[in-house]
């Protein structure tokens, strides 16, 4: 690019901004049009707003090169990196309405001076409630008896789950090498795996550090659960993964279940969005990456990136999820007093049955295919977050 080209590109950009804001957004973002419209952005910034909703997996380099949007709003299924943005010269803000950020190359965005925001903590109660529901559906006696819950990763979700566990009178054994020790961060990985009745994973997906690569972690989580760590778990210890699929080595998991008969609950899968029947058939509960999919969890995700965009545009937010939420009658105190109402609060076995119904008998590989997995997520039923 010559200096003249750069000057032309900048002129084009200034003209475009004068015309308005163009947003390409994952159509699965909850209440997209309620948060991102002329009244909530345009009037305040003095620009028109054009929003282009696209299925998350269809947001690609070609589209972003043709449309040249100013804003990109995504969820977890869009990989944001140099390959996606190399031919785009316009994006100034990327917002992901998710907690996880493993799909975003934040270092690359920084080299392009693109602001990034994610929705930290947005569905922490929803995911914690999913985990409790799974455990208490499989072991209803745990409502009344002493239980040791192992939690790996004690950030927003893990620590919220620990609060519910303490509220039920359970003991928590937690492991998080990146946080100081505490009443819940109180054990080694081996102790958590070997001494709990159920172990739940709440870590981000991270890889090993390679040479001086700053992206890796000193405590990588990819395949953290493998043949060696599974061997530390007694056979009657439940394993729950609602973090990211590749945290668990699925081949090792299949072997472990074949030998131990362990009860395993997966919401996320190593080869998502496809799920092989050879794995699904061995799982006690399987759901299509919906642990955080309550109305509240999804709306909070949208709210957080909307607020971050308003900050970027230097405008005061004009929309709030409280305007969009219907009355919520699901009270944690009521459920605790009436454990038999659990399936009315959240019927996790219905989600399990829907996923299993997508196994195609005609397909020799027998698997849930990606379109069906994504369809279940797109058309997910209304689920509410329990209130404290
Ligand atoms: N299934 C679903 O619907 C959802 C899944 N998630 C997943 O859950 C993950 C956790 O979410 P949050 O708790 O909100 O994240 P967070 O960032 O608040 O906490 C993650 C914790 O994991 C710890 N950690 C990192 N490496 C570790 C290791 N090797 N061993 C033990 N601990 C380690 C960190 O120190 C941190 O405290 C997200 O990164 C996302 O991938 C999040 C929301 C919904
Ligand atoms: O927040 C996260 O991290 C999640 O895993 C999401 O709840 C999953 O949602 P999608 O972005 O995949 O819809």
UniProtKB/TrEMBL annotation:
GO term, biological process aspect, one: pyridoxine biosynthetic process
EC number: 1.1.1.290
Binding-site residues for substrate, renumbered to this chain: 76, 98, 293
Enzyme class of the recorded protein, top EC level: oxidoreductase
All copies of domain D-isomer specific 2-hydroxyacid dehydrogenase NAD-binding, residue ranges: 147-291
Domain D-isomer specific 2-hydroxyacid dehydrogenase catalytic intervals: 69-311
Binding of NAD(+), residues: 176, 267, 292
Family annotation (Pfam families): 2-Hacid_dh, 2-Hacid_dh_C, DUF3410
Cellular component terms per the entry's GO annotation: cytoplasm
UniProt GO molecular function: 4-phosphoerythronate dehydrogenase activity; NAD binding; protein dimerization activity
SUPFAM superfamilies (alphabetical): Formate/glycerate dehydrogenase catalytic domain-like, NAD(P)-binding Rossmann-fold domains
Superkingdom of origin organism: Bacteria
Annotated compartments: Cytoplasm
HAMAP family from the UniProt entry: PdxB
Function: Catalyzes the oxidation of erythronate-4-phosphate to 3-hydroxy-2-oxo-4-phosphonooxybutanoate.
Family statement: Belongs to the D-isomer specific 2-hydroxyacid dehydrogenase family. PdxB subfamily.
PANTHER family: D-ISOMER SPECIFIC 2-HYDROXYACID DEHYDROGENASE CATALYTIC DOMAIN-CONTAINING PROTEIN-RELATED, D-ISOMER SPECIFIC 2-HYDROXYACID DEHYDROGENASE FAMILY PROTEIN (AFU_ORTHOLOGUE AFUA_1G13630)
Protein name stated in the entry: Erythronate-4-phosphate dehydrogenase
Species: Psychrobacter pacificensis
Lineage of the species this protein comes from: Bacteria, Pseudomonadati, Pseudomonadota, Gammaproteobacteria, Moraxellales
Primary gene name: pdxB
């Amino acid at each position: 690019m010559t200096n003249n080209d750069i000057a032309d590109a900048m002129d084009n950009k200034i003209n475009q901004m004068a015309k308005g804001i163009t947003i390409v957004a994952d159509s699965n973002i909850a209440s997209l049009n309620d948060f991102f419209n002329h009244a909530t952005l345009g009037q305040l910034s003095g620009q028109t707003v054009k929003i282009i909703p696209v299925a998350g997996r269809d947001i690609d380099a070609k589209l972003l090169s043709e449309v040249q949007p100013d804003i990109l709003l995504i969820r977890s299924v869009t990989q944001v990196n140099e390959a996606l943005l190399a031919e785009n010269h316009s994006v100034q803000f990327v917002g992901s309405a998710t907690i996880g950020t493993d799909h975003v190359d934040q270092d690359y965005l920084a080299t392009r001076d693109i602001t990034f925001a994610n929705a930290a903590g947005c569905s922490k109660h929803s995911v914690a409630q999913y985990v409790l529901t799974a455990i208490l559906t499989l072991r209803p006696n745990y409502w009344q008896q002493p239980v040791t819950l192992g939690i790996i990763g004690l950030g927003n979700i893990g620590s919220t789950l620990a609060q519910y566990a303490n509220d039920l009178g359970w003991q928590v054994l937690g492991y998080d090498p990146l946080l100081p020790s505490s009443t819940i961060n109180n054990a080694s990985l081996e102790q958590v795996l070997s001494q709990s009745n159920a172990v739940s994973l709440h870590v981000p997906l991270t890889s090993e550090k390679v040479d001086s690569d700053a992206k890796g972690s000193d405590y990588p989580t990819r395949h953290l659960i493998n043949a060696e760590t599974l061997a530390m778990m007694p056979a009657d210890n439940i394993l729950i993964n609602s973090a990211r699929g590749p945290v668990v080595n699925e081949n090792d998991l299949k072997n472990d279940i074949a030998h131990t008969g362990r009860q395993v609950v997966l919401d996320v899968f190593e080869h998502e969005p496809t799920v092989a029947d050879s794995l699904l058939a061995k799982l006690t509960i399987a759901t299509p990456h919906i642990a955080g999919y309550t109305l509240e969890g999804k709306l909070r995700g949208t709210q957080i990136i909307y607020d971050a965009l308003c900050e970027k545009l230097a405008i005061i937010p004009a929309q709030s999820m409280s305007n969009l939420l219907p009355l919520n009658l699901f009270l944690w105190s009521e459920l605790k007093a009436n454990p038999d109402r659990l399936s009315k609060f959240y019927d996790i076995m219905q989600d399990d049955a829907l996923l299993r119904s997508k196994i195609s008998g005609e397909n020799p590989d027998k698997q849930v295919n990606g379109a069906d997995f994504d369809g279940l997520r797109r058309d997910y039923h209304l689920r509410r977050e329990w209130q404290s």
